[in-house]
Amino acid sequence: MISPAVLHSNFLADIGRKDIDKILASARVKRVKAKQAIVTRGEHAQYLFILLSGRVRYYKITRHGDEVVFRWLFPGDAFGLGSLLKRPTPYMGTGEALRDGEVLVWSHTKIRALAALHPQLSENALKVVLQYLRDYAKRHIRLVTKSAEERLADVLLIFGHQQGRVGGDQVELEVTNEQLSALADVSIFTTSRIMSKWAHKGFISKERGKVFIRVPEALVTD
Amino acid sequence: MISPAVLHSNFLADIGRKDIDKILASARVKRVKAKQAIVTRGEHAQYLFILLSGRVRYYKITRHGDEVVFRWLFPGDAFGLGSLLKRPTPYMGTGEALRDGEVLVWSHTKIRALAALHPQLSENALKVVLQYLRDYAKRHIRLVTKSAEERLADVLLIFGHQQGRVGGDQVELEVTNEQLSALADVSIFTTSRIMSKWAHKGFISKERGKVFIRVPEALVTD
DNA sequence: CGATGTATTGATGTGGATCAAAATAAGTGG
DNA sequence: CCACTTATTTTGATCCACATCAATACATCG
Questions:
Q1: What 3-state DSSP class applies to A221?
Q2: Cα B125 to chain center, whole Å?
Q3: Which residue from A minimizes the CA distance to B131?
Q4: pLDDT tier, B162 (very low <50, low <70, confident <90, very high otherwise)
Q5: What integer best gives the mean pLDDT of chain A?
Q6: For position B134, what pLDDT does the model report?
Q7: Are B6 and B119 in contact (CB under 8 A)?
Q8: Apex CA A10: angle with CA B123 and CA B88, to 5°?
Q9: HSE of A28 in the Cβ direction (CA atoms, 13 Å)?
Q10: In terms of Cα–Cα distance, which of A128, A66, A178 is closest to B140?
């Protein structure tokens, strides 16, 4: 049984079903538990991953103890792409599971062999990294041109687009204020205040560890 | 006569001299004049480039008129890598020559054919984009964890490392305060004040459009 | 029911942006 | 070579968005 998430993975785009099956056959499925580190910053990139289920937070702790979150990964997202290189680069951050889940794993050797066999994989790797780069450029622009409130709104909408479950006319996000604040580069205090304001206005509603977006339009800033 | 810059290009790393010659043979050399846009944001990525000489500023203007600089490119740097994809992505920014210079140009079709012939090119493309991504992650960390002064110091040192000509015991950078301020995400006013302070302390000296780093160690913050 | 993670709310402080103005330097064309 | 425009830099005064600090409340859970 193949998870639907993996079939829509960018890393496996434009590859025939038969080839996908072969590629998946040489992967190992690994269960990961919440809070477990899947890859660790600096370590030699020995494996390539596709997230099957769960959520991964990719982050780094600076020498001064500040934690900076690069991005969240959702089912279908590939990471550890440096492992595709002949001489793998070190992982640029630590990838930690936010909840129990599963990843597909290929060793450096295996994924290299597969890429040689299916050039589309190399092409997809480039496409994925370019997308990550674009995402980062957008985040940078957001950071230097938008206010804390606007950034938070953007993050909520992006997040909803990536993982939101639509129920009725609303989107439910499983995320804490603290996690949102890290993605928007806003302090948890300012985040709390803004979220409260929005809840009061009826744009969102909140539970501990959850946000329901009720009026997405109200969060569009641009 | 082959420019030495191109031989050290990351995009051509680990390729034999003979193959490099063939690859270069199918490129076109294009002269670009200062202030000329080589690629324009949003346009279909039809060409891949390697900068031979000169300097390129890769930036975007937001809908509110703010200019955000993604990065500067130096001789040997490749850009327009989205053109390697079967269905090219649009250029994510505008690349503008900062002075007269030259670029190597390959069309989408040609570079795809070359990549098929020399898989190392695809590998290098991935490596280069991964490096750009790492650079962006670093910049992000700098932005959210360091002060304006520290960011400015970092940018000076990085810049010096990338393009500085060493003369005597000092490094000469051809860059205006305004350009530095854009790379460090600091206002031009704060930049001016900090530079003045450093000049006063003897860490650097200044001319219009130039910076001489005299005591690099004094700028190391970490 | 302590313990631990999450959220709220007020008070306080400040880094650095923004605004305003002018000085300096470098072209440019007559 | 001068008058004039245009780019770069400087310097002071002002302001505020947001971080930081401090305290409390609430929820969850073993």
A1: coil
A2: 16
A3: A89
A4: confident
A5: 94
A6: 98
A7: no
A8: 60
A9: 10
A10: A66
Best mutation target among A61, A133, A141, A185 (most B Cβ atoms within 10 Å) is A133
Whether the CB of A205 is less than 7 Å away from nucleic strand C comes out as no
Q: What is the Cα–Cα distance from A128 to A79, expressed in whole angstroms?
A: 9
Is the pLDDT at B118 greater than 70? The verdict is yes
For tokens 């940078």, name the residue: A140
Rounded to whole angstroms, how far apart are CA atoms A126 and B126? 5
pLDDT at residue number A164 = 62
A42 to A61, A66, A90, A95, B2: CA distances (angstroms): 12, 17, 5, 11, 37
Output the pLDDT for position A5: 79
Per the CB < 8 A criterion, the answer to whether A5 and A76 are in contact is yes
Within residues 50-109 of protein chain A, the ones with CB less than 7 A from nucleic strand C are none
> B166 versus B90: which is more confidently predicted?
B90
Is it the case that residue A168 has pLDDT exceeding 70?
A: no
Q: Who among B60, B134, B222 is closest to A141 (CB)?
A: B60
Q: Which of A173, A177, A183 is nearest to A197 (CA)?
A: A177
Average pLDDT over chain B reads: 94
Q: Which two three-digit tokens encode residue A55?
A: 């959520």
**Domains in chain B, CATH or no CATH each:** 4-143 (2.60.120.10), 146-219 (1.10.10.10)
For every residue of A57-102, DSSP letters joined together read: EEEEE-TTS-EEEEEEE-TT-EE-GGGGSSSPPBPSSEEEESSSEE
With a 7 Å cutoff on the CB, does B196 touch strand C?
no
Q: Let me know if B217 is exposed, middle or buried by CB neighbors in 10 A (0-12, 13-18, 19+).
A: exposed
- Three-state SS for B48-86 is EEEEEECCEEEEEECCCCCEEEEEEECCCCEECHHHHCC
Percent of chain A whose pLDDT exceeds 90: 90
CA A122 to chain centre: 20
Q: Classify B154 as helix, strand or coil.
A: helix
Residue A70's φ and ψ, nearest 5 degrees, are -75, -50
Instruction: Please give the nucleotide, over all strands, whose C1' is closest to the CA of residue A188.
Output: C7
Per-residue pLDDT at A8 exceeds 80:
yes
The rounded distance, in Å, linking the Cα atoms of B169 and B87 is: 49
- Residue A101 CA to residue A75 CA, distance in Å, equals 9
A100, A77 Cβ separation under 8 angstroms: no
